[in-house]
Amino acid sequence: MSERILIHPVTRVEGHAKISIYLDDSGEVSSAQFHVTEFRGFEKMCEGRPFYEMPGRMSRICGICPISHILASSKAGDMLLGVEIPRAAQKQRRLVNYAQVLQSHALSFFHLASPDFLLGMDVDPVKRNLFGLIESDRDLARRGIRLRQFGQRVIELVGGRRIHPDWGTPGGVLRSLGTAERDEIRSWIPEALESMEIALGRMKTVLDSVNAEVEHIGNFPTLFLGTVTPEGALEYYDGLIRIVDAEGNIVAEGLDPCRYASYLAEASEEWSYMKFAFYKPLGYPGGAYRVGPLARLNVAQSAGTPRAERELREFKHRGRGAVCQSFHYHLARLIEMLHAIERIDELTDDPELLREHVRAKAGQNRNHGVGSCEAPRGVLFHDYEVDDDGLIRKVNLLIATGQNNLAMNRAVEQTARHFVSSRSLSEGMLNRVEAAIRCFDPCLSCSTHAVGHMPLILELRDSAGHLLDQVQRG
Amino acid sequence: MVICIAIGNALRGDDGVARYALSLIPSSDRMRLMEVFQLTPELACEIATADVVFFLDADASAAEVALAPIETHAGNGSPLVHSMSPAELVAVARRLYAFAGQALLCRIPAKQFGFGEELTLEAKAAARSAASMIAEYAAWTGQTPEAKSHSNSTRDASAG
Description:
- The complex is a heterodimer.
- Chain A has helices at about 40-45, 55-60, 65-80, 85-120, 130-135, 140-160, 180-205, 210-215, 295-300, 305-315, 330-350, 400-405, 405-420, 425-440, 445; strands at about 5-10, 15-25, 30-35, 170, 170-175, 225-230, 240-245, 250-255, 265-270, 270-280, 290, 370-375, 380-385, 390-400, 455-460, 465-474.
- Chain A is an alpha+beta fold.
- Chain A folds into three domains: about 1-40 and about 410-474, no CATH class; about 85-220 and about 325-360, Cytochrome-c3 Hydrogenase, chain B (Orthogonal Bundle), CATH 1.10.645; about 220-325, no CATH class.
- In chain A, β13 and β14 (about 390-400) form a beta hairpin.
- The relative contact order of chain A is 0.23.
- Chain B has one domain (about 1-160): 3-Layer(aba) Sandwich (Rossmann fold).
- Chain B has helices at about 15-25, 45, 85-95, 120-140, 145-160; strands at about 1-5, 30-35, 50-60, 65-70, 100-110.
- A five-stranded mixed β-sheet of chain B has the order 2-1-3-5-4, covered by helices on one side.
- The interface of A and B includes residues 12, 111, 152 and 454 of A.
């Protein structure tokens, strides 16, 4: 008789989740599923509201990456107005997006993921957390908090507040940036760059000691999708979509993000509220692709900033073609943080950033608008249909975590096959299955448009559905 | 320095009661008032130099306003998610930044958490009570030891 293991809810990810592991008659893992059991229906709530309210409304989806939703929503609004926004506004938007990548990745790496590999996967969970990290490496923990604080401070200085800033709007942004604020941002940069060099050095040393995890936690071929400049460099705010395969071959490039629905689609499964995005030409589930830090570094030919360029070249040697090990999402996150700080340095050195003209005003000129940007977890699409009075008729949000859903499920299954080998759950195997998900740093409250704190349950079941073991965290 | 941190979402009914209470606390040079949706790690270094930190939060299980010291706990086996509890935040501040001040949690009774900015009458009354309790406590902590001793004896005398 085959069996099933259940993990419910996943800790150190944002949202509610359950992992089911099924055993076959011989006690081997036959399959695994990562269920997201919460539903919010945010898209539905927006119907009937004026489109110019959307940036503020959409930012409420998430307390961690509200900037991404503000940006994608504002860009959809720009398209509805039919305007090109002032250059200072575009630079502000870019600046804040880099700040968000920095603060979100800092939270993911230093506080959620790093205890696993800096302290060890088999360390007692009582110690394998931020407090354990503080005991083990006080300086690194402190630097992690400072990096997060820097990102949040940039958002506060530009946007007016750290979470859900009232700042982005169709046509630009609502306020210009002052010299004092710009100078304060610049004062943080030397320390931030130093912290990133230290963290990267530490991470690369640690990778040698977690080889089994690198090779068996989410290491499989998929497509990778991300935004690049017309020249193929890293891009987070406004570019073209490129897709590469596991060998690093370009499958598609120069794709217009506004036409995402022509090449991407979503499937549903009855056991999860989170949809499963796929690349249309390869169908479902063959068109599985990954987005986010790993994908962005795989699709980009260059970084465009000197320190990140050096790291990107070294990073690409970790794969044959594309880097397929999901564990390297963590290293990719650090490289992106370094890149973000370099870009913040460049942007705040540009006098155009301080110009006072930050908003283009116009009436509604279109009934359909799509906005996209690279959120910390991957590319984000906001798609609005509005009536002639500017009221929302339909909203579709394609969220990064949903686009990684097929890959997350595959990562859980692969990890379970390698590390789960009995009718009960040990702490070490449980944590490795969870770690497979944490590679992607999913924001389940975004992807299901859900609210609140999400715990994780891991279940082990036989083929008849009988529960063999269960562990709950959070 | 006294820091008051109100936690909650003003768009979810009584969940915004802490923010309302914060608005009723008289500001002063030694008082810093902050509103947050959730507690995040970087707040640890912001509270590190405070003499007293008050966390104000809506609590559906509270029958009356309660002000109590926060029992810090670290490494309790509950891994960190994107937000932290007051106890975890204070523990990080103590361990990482040598925070040596007092930390207190003010639980404010709350009833309904539906969509909307309106507070129930009960929550508003509780917010007023919480604000005066915090203001009084903060004023007391700002006194010199001699003044504290005097106000204590005055309190004892009036109680007697």
